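Input record (Table S2, row 288):
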Amino acid sequence: MIDGKTRTCGLIGNPVEHTLSPVIHNTLSEKLAQNLVYVPFHVKEGMVEDAVKGARALNILGCNVTVPYKSEVIPFLKELDPLAEKIGAVNTLVSVEGGYKGYNTDMPGLLRAMESDGVQITGEKVIILGAGGVARAVAVLLAQQKAEQILITNRTLQKAEQIAQEVNGLFQSKTVSAVTLEELCGLKDEGYLAIQATSVGLHPHDDEVIIGQDAFYHKIHTAYDLIFNPGETKFMKLAAKAGAKAYNGLKMLLYQGIIAYELWNDMAVSDEIAAEIYERLKKALKDE
Ligand code: ATR
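Output record (2'-monophosphoadenosine-5'-diphosphate complex):
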């Protein structure tokens, strides 16, 4: 029941019509008996500053921020969490004295998803496929979590090289290096974790894959695709065929939302509730 004490959170993005975030947050409020409602806000190009000011004026408790505003929103924030600063992208605004503080819960969300799937980062050899904004964020997470080696590959190699240089600079390390797709297939070592951070294979292009060679899939023990629609991407299918474990990105979506909700409400969400929300998300995806 919405009443005079209902607090509001929302999503700033363009477009927002297909978001699953209201399923996460409104179900959390229902399960946790919180008087909080979460709504999508379609913010038109050039209106981000006004949106942040307006949210502030309306006493909105917090917002998620999605494409294409995750970096554009940063200048309009009062404070910035250090991890979000390193990543250069904010997906969660939390109301603080005098404005909003920006966080990135996407990468902590990926970390929590991996932990819940029993996938390790610390001390591991990891391959990142892609060199866009998401791939860069993954490289920061892996460096922060002390992966032993981080190889990054991309169709446009130059972009992978730039990320390697930037992330090594941020962490004063030499952990990240850029490699070509051909070099990946010829790796001497095995036992890599591979994280697929491009849009290749996203529905309706279910049959597309960033790398098709069997040789690559025999080098990896685990494939983590950040795509969640389809639930099993071609990348995951090829990995499974080669004997690797394969996971999609739905748990990352779940946990980025849960971490945002925890920040807004200053509380911890239990594993049991997280599992219930995960089931709701799977159902919502099926019904789409
Ligand atoms: P995001 O912010 O979601 O990471 P992005 O910055 O547009 O999105 O990055 C998209 C990534 O997917 C890039 O690594 C891109 O490769 P390029 O840098 O070479 O463009 C990759 N990508 C998209 N479509 C691709 C395709 N058909 N084949 C190979 N890589 C592709």
